[in-house]
Amino acid sequence: MAFYSTNEFKGGLKIMLDGDPYSIVENEFVKPGKGQAFNRVRIRNLKTGRVIEKTFKSGDTVEAADVHDTDMQYLYNDGEEWHFMHQESFEQMTAGEAAVGEAAKWIKENDICKVTLWNGAPLSIEPPNFVVLKIIETDPGVRGDTSGGGGKPATLETGAVVRVPLFVQTDELIKVDTRTGEYASRAKD
Amino acid sequence: MPRTESDVPGDWRPSARLTAIQARAELYARIRGFFSASGVLEVETPILSRSAVTDPALSSLSTQVAIAGFGSGRPLYLQTSPEFAMKRLLATGTGPIYQICKVFRDEERGRRHHPEFSLLEWYRPGWDYGRLMDDVGALVRLALDRPAMPVERVTYRDLFRDGLGLDPWHAGIAQLREAAGRAGLRGLDGLELDRDGWLDLLLTQCLEPGLGQGRLTFLCDYPPSQAALSRVRTSGEVAVAERFELYIDGVELANGFGELVDVGEQRARFQADLALRRAQGRPEPPIDEFLLDALDHGMPECAGVALGLDRLLMIATGAESIDAVLSFAIERA
């Protein structure tokens, strides 16, 4: 089992706390003129996404979390789980709903996703920043409106609903920014 | 993910702007002018020593030299402050002395901490620590070019009583932990500290930020368990350490003492520090026998103070991080 001393704390370091993996968001070293030093940290629970504060005595050690990111190709969903494949080792893994979370709204077969592994199993899935998806349903736009001010809802092939400009029609491909969930542009196949 | 300083790749360029480098030169000139005008002698003492500070809260760096008499891998320690050597000078009758020097503390890095930093340390034989606080106030107001900046003194006990409603001399660990929770500190479960550790947490997290707002605040008269190298006297029904710290804008700038000159008491404190280090499984550096010999010979009653010059420059230049006043922060060293 690996351990980190508080001296090694910095943003992005992955540690274990109460059985859950956390990522350090912010680390502040605090020390009085004479006396005990502290590390006050803000840490993100990698399972729930919740950010909490924690105070450590400087010099204490914390168990390292075996967490790392890897790119994997999304293969298919079998109705319960999402299947991914490592493109070099061809190793396949399955991720449940808790790990896939919001990414389920955006990914389709063959997309390359960032998979965060904890002890070798998928902990969370991050979709590509931009995905190209087909509109399966949207109201016909008003002729002559090309600016898209206001927009309208459109349902995409993955089930996600985004606001699109009025001139975009059913069966068209659009590019969506998955970080904001917003329409970015029309896309060609 | 916000970038932290240590993520910034090393660069040959300075961490500080030219204006901060010039501000340092100007500050040192003012300091030297101040001491020259009041007859305090500038001295220089070695950075390396065969003994080291015993304070359990400090970690010394060490090195070795390849010369006769220093064989067998015996380390030389880099000073964490020039205190011991300057006290040896005082014992020879130098009169008042000051020094501007680099000091080294391992394991300290943050927005206000850097493992190598600059200290101004000075000693006034025949003065008590109250008079020295006035001296520090005069120097800092001159250094910051703020002659009318107000000065106040707050005792450690009053600060805790007024700010947290507890008596730091008598509150137990449970009460201190409860006060930290009440003050809004989160994530304390599992934190195991001794009484002084809890007091340190409350001071740094809850009380310090309010100190020295637009003024110089001297926090003084510490609990005897935090005396460090200061004298302890009786005040009313309790013992207090003749120790002070200076704050501006919530930042601790200086630490001063009515200096302990009793050799027996000094040896006992060194040994208590080493016993604590042993219990913590931390290194036990050799005690400075030269300092004890000097105290045994006789050191004048005096008051002394160490002031962090990098932090003073941060205040003078409005810097948010110590890196902004260092020519090259350690990541670029």
From TrEMBL, chain A:
Q: Carries keyword Calcium?
A: no
SMART domains reported for this sequence: EFP (SM01185), Elong-fact-P_C (SM00841)
Tell me the ranges covered by the Elongation factor P C-terminal domain, including all copies: 131-186
Q: Which residues form the Translation elongation factor P/YeiP central domain?
A: 69-123
Maturation and modification = May be beta-lysylated on the epsilon-amino group of Lys-34 by the combined action of EpmA and EpmB, and then hydroxylated on the C5 position of the same residue by EpmC (if this protein is present). Lysylation is critical for the stimulatory effect of EF-P on peptide-bond formation. The lysylation moiety may extend toward the peptidyltransferase center and stabilize the terminal 3-CCA end of the tRNA. Hydroxylation of the C5 position on Lys-34 may allow additional potential stabilizing hydrogen-bond interactions with the P-tRNA.
PROSITE patterns according to UniProt: EFP
> Where in or outside the cell is it found?
Cytoplasm
| Keyword Protein biosynthesis assigned | yes
Pathway-wise, it operates in: Protein biosynthesis; polypeptide chain elongation
Q: Name one GO molecular function term.
A: translation elongation factor activity
The biological process GO terms on file are:
peptide biosynthetic process
What cellular component terms from Gene Ontology apply here?
cytosol
- According to its UniProt record, which protein family does this protein belong to? Belongs to the elongation factor P family.
Q: What is this protein called?
A: Elongation factor P
Species of the source: Allochromatium palmeri
Q: Which gene encodes it?
A: efp
UniProtKB/TrEMBL annotation, chain B:
Quote the cellular component terms of the Gene Ontology held in the record. cytosol
Say which domain of life the source belongs to: Bacteria
Q: Which GO terms describe its biological process?
A: lysyl-tRNA aminoacylation
Keywords tagged on the record: ATP-binding, Ligase, Nucleotide-binding
InterPro entries the record matches: Aa-tRNA-synt_II, aa-tRNA-synth_II, aa-tRNA-synth_II/BPL/LPL, EpmA, Lys-tRNA-synth_II_C
UniProt entry tagged with the keyword ATP-binding:
yes
**Which reaction(s) does the protein catalyse, per the Swiss-Prot or TrEMBL entry?**
D-beta-lysine + L-lysyl-[protein] + ATP = N(6)-((3R)-3,6-diaminohexanoyl)-L-lysyl-[protein] + AMP + diphosphate + H(+)
**By its UniProt entry, which NCBIfam families does this protein fall under?**
genX, PRK09350.1
Quaternary state and interactors: Homodimer.
What protein does this entry describe?
Answer: EF-P lysine aminoacylase GenX
What organism is listed for this UniProt entry? Allochromatium palmeri
